[in-house]
Write a structure and sequence with these properties.
single chain, 531 residues, mainly alpha, two-stranded antiparallel sheet, globular
Length: 531
Amino acid sequence: MKKTGKRKLKKFKLYPATSFILLTIFIIILSAILSFFDVQATYNKLDLNNIQLKSTLVVVKNMLSYDGVKYIISNAAINFISFTPLSMMLISLLGISVAVSSGFFDIFIKRNLGEINTKFITFLLLFIATISSLINEVGYAVLIPLGAIFYQAKGRNPLVGIVTAFCGVSFGYGISVFIGSLDISLIPYTQASARLIDPTFHISLTSNLFIIIVLSIILSIIGTFAIENFVTKSLKRKRERKDISYTSEIEIIDYINEEQTKIETNKYEKKGLKYAYISSIIVIFIFIYMLIPNLPFSGILLDMKEKTYVNQLFGLNSYLQDGFTYMVAIFFLIIGIAYGIGAKTIKSDKDIINGSNQYMKNIVEIITIIFFASQFIAVFKETNIGTIITAWGANIISELSWGAIPLIIIILLVGTIADLFITTPTSKWIILAPVVVPKLMQLNVSPQFSQMLLRASDSMANGITPLLAGFAIYIGYLNIYNKDKENPITIKKSISYIMPYFGIISLAWIVLIIGWYITGLPLGPNVYPTI
């Protein structure tokens, strides 16, 4: 009797752009169904001026209705153009492209980072990515491409660099080494919510300063462990690559040493680096001068209408935040040109223009992904589904009568779930703060610690939701550096790369937050977990 072998079904992989189209269609249909069943939620909205709660009803908006379809069609261009990470990415790449094409990055990395331990490189990238939240979402636009460039120049898989940078920015969002824009956004709602219990309660900008500095370092160390021991292994190349991994490593080291020898003996490369270093010092000095108030022609990047220096730096109308990406582009553009002139890799303005175009050619696929991702995010936000889910979470918390530690854990979990649907911290805190802050104050937990719970839950889940704006850039770069073009890296696959990191960092957040509360360590100057 003839045996019939089992045929394996070929796996069908959707390109990311197609996935975002299907997700948008799914959300449109889901909104119609939920609207038909009159799904809604009520939450208390806090008036910051009168410190009064106003009951607010939110319902699902049917995107298959006349108004819904009208919104989808008429706002498509606006959704795309106003997608902030897109403009940031395009601006930053103008400078990065010149630095890459001139050869600066390649020589700089091999000369200065060739002998540095790869784990330290990972830690450094994670730490810089983590503290990049000082300037909103600039980390996604700048550090993801730089991560790929640095790791590739080090002889490592560039996909690891992309994942590392993305994990650092997304899972470390909200902690840094200084007060940033997030503090300025959250504190008004934290303070107003606290005044529901104590009308005189005041929260300073430095209320979370100590804990965010410490956690930015600790989580970068833990993240390095996760990247090197789990993420890197899941991103290893195919079996033939593994078979020669030891030989390849030796070849890379020999190549680095060889290049370092060439640099030392090649007057053009040495001259190029010298020009680049001098230029970078001048640009950094000018940038710092722009941040100093009350000097001749200084303070250009400050909002001088604000009274405090922190608000001048990171306020809603801060020129620093609006212009930082442009400054990064200028920085890399100037050092790239300076190196190119010294190393003779740039001989005319044509070389500069061609250099800026060279790397930019690779981002066409990202732009396509961003267009459909921007529609998906905008449509989902318009449905109010995320707001309703967050409001449900707030109502659950309000009904609980538990002790401090169990309630803290529940708040972390509710905040994490809410973050999957609302990725903007302030939008979640507007709903959660009037419930969480007074509830914990009654258990002797300080409002400043409650605010830290929001920051923790926001960081725990940021990286695993396609509703995150930076996710489109992340998956776009994964596919740019994906050598197997016949098998695109899907949304599911891109999330699977970071699941080990998500699991380890989430557990670390919970342990660190609970540990900080139990030990009573200060959150900031004269601020503690308890009142």
